[in-house]
Fold this sequence. Notes:
The complex is a heterodimer of chains A (479) and B (161). Chain A has 479 residues and is α+β, with helices and mostly antiparallel strands. Chain A has helices at 2-15, 25-33, 38-75, 82-94, 99-111, 117-127, 130-147, 152-171, 173-191, 198-221, 265-274, and strands spanning 242-259, 275-277, 280-290, 295-332, 335-373, 378-394, 397-398, 404-405, 422-433, 438-449, 459-475. Chain A folds into two domains: 56-221, no CATH class; 240-313 and 355-475, Porin. By secondary structure, chain B is mainly α. Chain B has two domains: 2-66, RNA polymerase sigma factor, region 2, helix turn helix motif (Rna Polymerase Sigma Factor, Chain: A, Orthogonal Bundle); 79-160, Winged helix-like DNA-binding domain superfamily/Winged helix DNA-binding domain (Arc Repressor Mutant, subunit A). Chain B has helices spanning 2-17, 21-38, 48-66, 96-104, 108-119, 124-131, 135-160. The longest helix of chain B has 26 residues, at 135-160. Chain B is globular.
Amino acid sequence: MNDNLFDAxxxxxxxxxxxxxxxxxWERIAAAKEPNRRPIxxxxxxxxxLFASLGTIAYWQWNSNSLTANExxxxxxxxxxxxxxxxxxxxxxxxxxxxxxxATNQExxxxxxxxxxxxxxxxxxxxxxxxxxxxxxxxNNFLDKTNNPSxxxxxxxxxxxxxxxxxTYKKQPSLAISNLxxxxxxxxxxxxxxxxxxxxYNSTIVWQRQYQDVADLKKTLDAGSMIGLxxxxxxxxxxxTWYIEAYTSAxxxxxxxxxxxxxxEGYISKRDSMESxxxxxxxxxxxxxxxxNQLFLKTGLQYSQINERFTQRIENERKLTTVITIRTVVHTxxxxxxxxDTSSFETVGYITKRGNNQYxxxxxxxxxxxxxxxxxxxxxxxxxxxxxxxxxYKGNMLDSTLLPLLPTATHTGxxxxxxxxxxxxxxxxxxxxISNTLSAFAEPYLRYNFGNISGNKAFTQRFHVAGxxxxxxxxxxxx
Amino acid sequence: xxxxxxxxxxxxxxxxxxxxxxxxxxxLQEGFIRIFRFIHQFKFEGSFEGWMRRIMVNTALKQLQKKxxxxxxxxxxxxxxxxxxxxxYAYSHLGANQIMELINNLPTGYKTVFNLVVIxxxxxxxxxxxxxxxxxxxxxxxxxxxxxxQNQIIALQKVAV
Lengths: 479, 161
């Protein structure tokens, strides 16, 4: 009963009790409210950067294929040697030839419809460079064979040699050019006549044979690399392979904490003794574009969190305990004395305060990966940059007097940067195909940050992270 | 203005849960930030002040739990000497500030349960859920807290005498 009265008394006294508020409290609240808008802006910025990156890559990819597309468009006006022209233009695109060369080819392809092409072409051939000579002579021969149905079988064999050549030169473009130059020397003497007589035809055969030899030689040399060559689609373009990867990694962070001058050595050693790394993690999604069968460009968005354990031992904590002993002394019936004895004792000890510090960040990785292997297992090495979009910190922090700031993000807002810049990324990966479109991978990696995360000039702090990514890869376009 | 109207009341609330003035200020700051952030979620069911008070108390508890409140009972070898409950005349003269001081002298676990049950009016089951403890622990902590508080009041009386 008395306990209820006691509780009611305390409640009545305290429920409406008021206490003084610091004068700057509203300013602090207003200041703390502002950063809440920032993440929304950062999300938009991150999305914009991602789209810009993907757009740039797509534009670059499209341009690399546009030469082939243009050439094919011209070739379709010439029904006489469509297959030859396609092979020819593919070859030029694969060798990364200049547009000037392409233009020359277009011109040639168009002029093949003219009945007097033989003479005109022979005049031009003399003034052109050797590589162009090959193309022109080749074109003349096609015309010749078109005008002479009896050459149809040779036409077919030439077509075959071109197909092989395309594949071979794709792997070794520099060697291919030199071989082509050599080949053109044989042709040049004969093509000067520019007549589709036996001499010209013979020169073509010589060229074909030599070229076939070169192709055979290249096939022999590059036997290994011929495996899994890109097959052109019906329109001559080599389809790009697109993947999407989702991954999560268990990380361990290595902190590099240094004082700016000797005055803060004590501060640094104190923090080193109080903060220790614990298991961290990264998770993200990235798109993968196959630049070739073995070379891949990767980019996406990832979230990283570095965890630290904060332990502080506060010494000389004093606790005062008061003990009141009440006893009743009965002298005689009716003569009772109630005696209260009060004593107190103080205990001195320490308390341990524990907390978790978290360094969080959103990053955009831009990576280049080289992969090899077979259908059962693939291996890869990856390198590139990780660009920080936004980072923030939450946790305990020692101030310069070695007292901890309270665990709120607002206190440490000016101690750490919100953008830590660029880091280098290197990894090795093992990929296990699960089905035609799905693979699982494990990727041990190392991230080395160049940027200093501390905004305070008293010390510099950087984190380097090592971890193992586990993820899945899904092939978006299946061709 | 919302802040001006309720800041002093909620500052007193935070001071009852906090272990220091700085901690109380941080609780108040964080509590008001949450109130402004989630004010659109108030459904006009019940008192607006009560809704804000719940946010403030939850914020205070969240900050306290980061320090891992210890709910183990403190051995008091002299506890059985105060079997009798305190008579109302023994504490009726106490003011709010004095009671605040006495409550703040309690261990964090005792103080938290006492505040939640006696002043905020939560049941032991609700307190158990909020703090992640057993209802029995909450009851035990309340009894011990009340007893320790009353002992402090008696000690004050002795000093006064």
